[in-house]
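Support case: GCB complex. Customer-provided input:
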Amino acid sequence: MLKPQTSATRELVRLDGLWRFALDSADVPEPWAAPLDTPLEAPVPASYNDLFTDPRIREHVGWAWYQRSVRVPRGWAGDRVIVRVDAATHEGVVYVDDVKVAEHVGGYLPFEADITEHVTPGAEFRLTIGVDNELTMETIPPGTIEVAADGRRVQRYFHDFYNYAGLARSVWLASRPAVHVDDVTVVTELEGTTGIVRVDTVVSADAAVRATLRDASGTVVGTADGASATIRVADATLWQPGAAYLYQLTLEALVDGEVVDEYALPVGIRTIEVRGAEFLINGEPFYFTGFGKHEDTAVRGKGHDDAYLVHDFQLMDWIGANSFRTAHYPYAEEVMEFADRHGIVVIDETPAVGLNLGLIGGITGAPKLATWSPGTIGDAAQAAHAQVLRELVARDKNHPSVVMWSITNEPASNEEGAREYFEPLVQLTRELDPSRPVTFVNVMMAPAGTDLVADLFDVICLNRYYGWYVNTGDLAAAEAGLETELRAWESLYGKPLIMTEYGADTMPGVHSVWDQPWSEEYQTAVLDMFHRVHDRVPALVGEQVWNFADFQTSAGIFRVDGNKKGVFTRDRKPKAAAHALRTRWTAMRDRA
Ligand code: GCB
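Agent response - structure generated as follows:
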């Protein structure tokens, strides 16, 4: 599904702003059937949880309703009218007046509906969107719902970030010609200095296709006719980490020689290859520096915000980072486009986090459950996981910034059943996109030798907490343990390794001359210890600190108003470690 845009043949109205808002209630069985009778208004985009002071809203489990009226521009007569929801967490349903027009499961990927038959150009309609935040053993990510003694439903989940819900990204009304460009896949290769741009276009009906590629100054550098086209660009300017260059591809659908639709998308010419234990971008070894991030800010929750987008990328540039992982779910498309334009490398992750019931059991002392079983993570979750992969690749396949798919974070890859669960999903990812490597993020409890799936992947990502969850406060033991482990991965697989999480919770303002956990000095010392080991292990091709910034989690005694492993605070102030990282990473950047 292509992102809606304005073009010579398309128009777009952003439906962001304040919507009427209400929790689901037995008193109003059909909230879409009339104007919502509610004192509450909620902004779109934003998670709803932290907006209101009422704890029943923050901890609500189930459906919530957003509603507003929308006028269809009168000039849209003759076109298709589309509603597009960039994300509804975790399940969404859309009504136009009394008619259900769309349903979608999965909280971090877009969906749309053609509503032409239900609306009139020039007239208003009532748009109602329901969002359901429930996580079960059949959803990705998974969760369980318990019923408390007082009858309240309580959502439990196995991942370490708050279960924010709502319409956290934009909602759009779009026009599109009846005969239109429906999809496009762009893959680039290099032959010497010539860029090869392969373009596969899908049109909605019988129409001819014309592709035109322009350079950044607008000069046409190539054209091609047909749904399957190849454009050769002599002396191509490459999309490089830290030096983005984007060509502009315009696709036209033609009927009887007349242009009926036009769709444009930026194209970065670059190659990705895994060779032995190296990760190559444009044939050059690439070393990832940066972070596992989150979409998380005060008040907005996971609500997308362009000011934070710009500021976060500024801070990543300041600190010398060249990459990040979209931990632990696909991010807003605005983020991906920004990375494309600014040359930031992205490991694009699905929301398959928390597929590890032993892990949570270990921490809470609750009985351990087998992760991969019919009653826990079984066929239904696997089907949901496959669907998320299809939708993620469909959405993000054309971003030059995306260099690799991460299909899951910290699954129970040491438990029986892991291989049966993952093998078809890796296969599916490769079929969906043969042009990018596939990785997964390995958890500390499944080291080399006990992990059952790592050989299926091109690159092995590791989250390790030596010096924090193990060897707490003992950095000498931590250093020895980390090096021994990395050497084992290196010799067993011979594949590139990336440290996708390492770090320590840190309260800004806590200081110590000793190795004291929670102090700013200790966070720096843990990172320094990892860096000494990273520099000694050749197969280690990247380091992404956990986390870019502090973020909110569910309530618990392991967290102090959220996870404090940020190098920046939640409001983006640097802790001492930020300065140390800046020294290391800017020096590495200057040497590259
Ligand atoms: C992890 C998880 C991440 C947590 C982190 C932590 O391994 O991947 O989601 O937030 O550890 O801080 O415990």
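Residues 181-270 form a domain with the Immunoglobulin-like fold (CATH 2.60.40.10).

Case will auto-close in a few days if no follow-up is received.
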